[in-house]
Amino acid sequence: MTTDHDIYASSTETTEGRVFTVSGQDWDQIAEGLAEDDSERVVVNMGPQHPSTHGVLRLILELEGETVTEARCGIGYLHTGIEKNMEFRSWVQGVTFCTRMDYLSPFFNEATYCLGIERLLDIEDQVPEKANVMRVLLMELNRISSHLVAIATGGMEIGALTVMTIGFRERELVLDLFELITGLRMNHAFIRPGGVAQDLPPGALDEIRAFIALMRKRLPEYEALCNANPIFKARLVDVGHLDLEGCVALGLTGPVLRSTGYPWDLRKTQPYCGYETYDFDVQTWDTADSYGRFRIRLAEMWESLKIVEQAAERLAGLEGAPVMVADKKIAWPSQLAIGSDGMGNSLDHIRHIMGESMEALIHHFKLVTEGFRVPAGQAYVPVEGPRGELGAHVVSDGGTRPYRVHFRDPSFTNLQATSVMSEGGMVADVIVAIASIDPVMGGVDR
Amino acid sequence: MTEDKSPDQRALEESPENAPASLDPEVRAVGVRRGMFGTRGTGDTSGYGGLVQPVVYPGLARRPLEGWHEEVAAALDAALATAGAPDAVEGVVVHRGELTFHVRRDGLPAVARALRDDPSLRFELLSGVSGVHHPDDAGRELHVVHHLLSMTWNRRVRLEVAVPDADPHLPSVVATYPTADWHERETYDMFGVVFDGHPSLTRILMPDDWPGHPQRKDYPLGGIPVEYKGGSVPPPDQRRSYS
């Protein structure tokens, strides 16, 4: 099993040292092979594969025994050129692309992109109230589902499979709500420049209220299962430590930053979509470790539930209110409706443009084929995503397509802390540290 | 009506936001747009085919700026004068409430350091670095954009550095903001901008041996036609465009 020449590695890949192909044989054999060499130093290539459901991440670990002396990340396996693609589609079509970046926080991707466009269009104040409330509602539901996956996969990675199964059980409830409201479980493209795509369907508020009531019963299960669980705490406490100075220097935001006790949350400090009018608290912890980040995520789900409840209350009083700007040069013309053969353009709209108003037909045609023009300039309106500051740098040259859109994804930035968090620790703690960052590779690689 | 001013000038003073961009001598056209519907040749029967419009970004702001923008600009001026780089900032743009400093590339490290360390600036966090490619902006083809956040003062600024395509070098800010490490690698990967002083400037998203830099405007999207029921739809970069 240890040979001087690895048949799988071409000569260019390894220039020094001996190559060990580790493929499921006994550790004794590997150790024997290592004993021939004097040093304890081993370079382990972990991946590229799913360390969990975070995506395809490759870790290059240098070990002394079981201690990590150097940890590096190899990323790019999920690079799909979304930013490039967006330059070839209209501003509205861009939403369909960016929703697929960080697939666990689609509404946040859409929101920051649309807020940037709205700032360039100078229509930030014209976005109707109901659209803002629906955005907040969807973003907070999304935060719950994203944190549930973070906790679930984090649990799975340390062997706590029950945490995984109950986490995904609750996430499914959120996805059911998304399906009811937007028509899709993921990749919604629901938040659009100027508002949202659709009004709330009938019965949605009841479903949301039922969900809130159920979550109030279910969330304590996580607390009972994990908070004081000695095995859980033994794996998480003091693992992946990163203090405030480290976080700021490395640009970390979100739960990792808040686990150092610094209450930085863009929803409070730089509110958007009317967050300043909701009653909620910023959750912090003071241990700056993986356990603190877990507790913050748990507590933030409670806060999100509070916001969802307030948003649902407001929506009850906003029945029939517009969900898209009144400006017909920007607002997407058609509304969807359920017909006998599935969802499609609303028949009322078809009747209007085909039979009643030629201007409406022209507007529909121009907006759908050409799109609207956005004044030249650049904007950056970040939002507080589940993983931290998520922002789209939107550049327009005055045309109907984005000239350049760059997403500052928190996963990309936060993943840089892998080496700081893991070096000097045990190899088993690398996984816990990365899970506490909660990177989503779709967002890292874009 | 005692003042001896032309009606144009009075109108401009009353509502400066309506000023045409060309009034400002500092405005640079970064490109031109031809026609109105993007089609070329005989396909364009609209009558607008001969239209040539400059692509103009918001012009430089006149000092003093308003509110905290002026505080930041003045503090930066003072800090740069102390640091011995008084002309590091080429100009300031304020657009839609966002403050942008156009920085000369030689002055970038001094500006970054001043913005981070000066007590009245305190931009502790670098949100990100990215690039924008303007192939028609002669001598300033590649723009590198830094977004900075001050948690102390709850403010954001943007730094923009323009470098020529022929010499795409600018100093790295990793020494000041360690988080710039991966961001600069990504900008290098996507635009071919070389950050001098970066600890290991290698590709990050594309494979190591990838030719070209995908986010440049002269790099094709590389789509293939989509066939459906006998018809075929050309890739997006070969369809009729409306930009």
From TrEMBL, chain A:
Report the locations given in the UniProt record: Cell membrane
EC category: translocase
Reply yes or no: does the keyword Transport apply. Answer: yes
Question: In the UniProt record, does the keyword Cell membrane occur?
Answer: yes
Bilayer topology reads: Peripheral membrane protein
For this protein, what reaction is catalysed?
a quinone + NADH + 5 H(+)(in) = a quinol + NAD(+) + 4 H(+)(out)
- Span of domain NADH-quinone oxidoreductase subunit D: 158-446
Cite the EC number: 7.1.1.-
Keyword list, A-Z = Cell membrane, Membrane, NAD, Quinone, Translocase, Transport
Q: Pfam families this protein is in?
A: Complex1_49kDa
- Report the principal subcellular site: membrane
Q: Report the PROSITE patterns cross-referenced here.
A: COMPLEX1_49K
HAMAP family named among the record's database cross-references = NDH1_NuoD
* Record function comment: NDH-1 shuttles electrons from NADH, via FMN and iron-sulfur (Fe-S) centers, to quinones in the respiratory chain. The immediate electron acceptor for the enzyme in this species is believed to be a menaquinone. Couples the redox reaction to proton translocation (for every two electrons transferred, four hydrogen ions are translocated across the cytoplasmic membrane), and thus conserves the redox energy in a proton gradient.
The UniProt similarity line reads: Belongs to the complex I 49 kDa subunit family.
Assembly notes: NDH-1 is composed of 14 different subunits. Subunits NuoB, C, D, E, F, and G constitute the peripheral sector of the complex.
Q: What protein is this chain from?
A: NADH-quinone oxidoreductase subunit D
Annotated organism of origin = Nocardioides oceani
State the encoding gene.
nuoD
TrEMBL record, chain B:
Its Enzyme Commission number(s) read: 7.1.1.-
Matching entries from HAMAP family are given as: NDH1_NuoC
**Annotated organism of origin:** Nocardioides oceani
* Quaternary structure (record): NDH-1 is composed of 14 different subunits. Subunits NuoB, C, D, E, F, and G constitute the peripheral sector of the complex.
Q: What is this protein called?
A: NADH-quinone oxidoreductase subunit C
Q: Which reaction does it catalyse?
A: a quinone + NADH + 5 H(+)(in) = a quinol + NAD(+) + 4 H(+)(out)
* UniProt membrane topology term: Peripheral membrane protein
| Cellular compartment(s) | Cell membrane
Task: Show the SUPFAM superfamilies listed in the entry.
Answer: Nqo5-like
User: Which superkingdom is the protein from?
Assistant: Bacteria
